Amino acid sequence: xxxxxxxxxxxxxxxxxxxxxxxxxxxxxxxxxxxxxxxxxxxxxxxxxxxxxxxxxxxxxxxxxxxxxxxxxxxxxxxxxxxxxxxxxxxxxxxxxxxxxxxxxxxxxxxx
Amino acid sequence: xxxxxxxxxxxxxxxxxxxxxxxxxxxxxxxxxxxxxxxxxxxxxxxxxxxxxxxxxxxxxxxxxxxxxxxxxxxxxxxxxxxxxxxxxxxxxxxxxxxxxxxxxxxxxxxxx
Lengths: 112, 113
Known about the structure:
The complex is a heterodimer. Chain A is built from no helices and 11 strands. By secondary structure, chain A is an all-beta fold. In chain A, strand 4 and strand 5 form a beta hairpin. In chain B, the strands form 2 sheets. In chain B, strands 2, 4, 5, 6, 9, 10 and 11 form a 7-stranded mixed β-sheet that branches. The termini of chain B are far apart. The interface between A and B is medium-sized, with 24 and 27 residues.
């Protein structure tokens, strides 16, 4: 079974702080997505990365794909309460196309 | 309606009941998926349909029966479920089977009593 490990599992920070969450595997991804899920809702796609070393920015969120395509990170600058949610990474391994494997998620709470 | 919709949003059923979950996508996509999300576990892929044909069945018990009458609609028929089947059931779609990006509905929160 190919596993995707996310860390930390829980993170509680104050508004304005910076944070980084991680997604790691021992296998090489062909692509990796990051999603945010709010309580009672489905995951919402934030970004897709496919090239080793790739960096993508979405406002205050910065996503990085590891050079070896085995890991990824999500950095949030100046967190806001609206960033609160469950952050999920999902990877597809070479040859498995859209059969995504999801990590267990990082639950982020941003307080005033 | 836009995106992916699911009904009902909440469902409580006894172990002897039969019920169905419905998913509809308004994105013109060709592939649709059912996932199960349980507490403290990663999302588990259950079924994949591509152009109305089932292309993945991830060892799901027969008490879950999917149906895809056309590329916009997906159903999950439920019968004789167990309490451990209580979870959030999510539907998703993608442009094609093989597309990287999937778009999720809001889910159906199922409780089996």
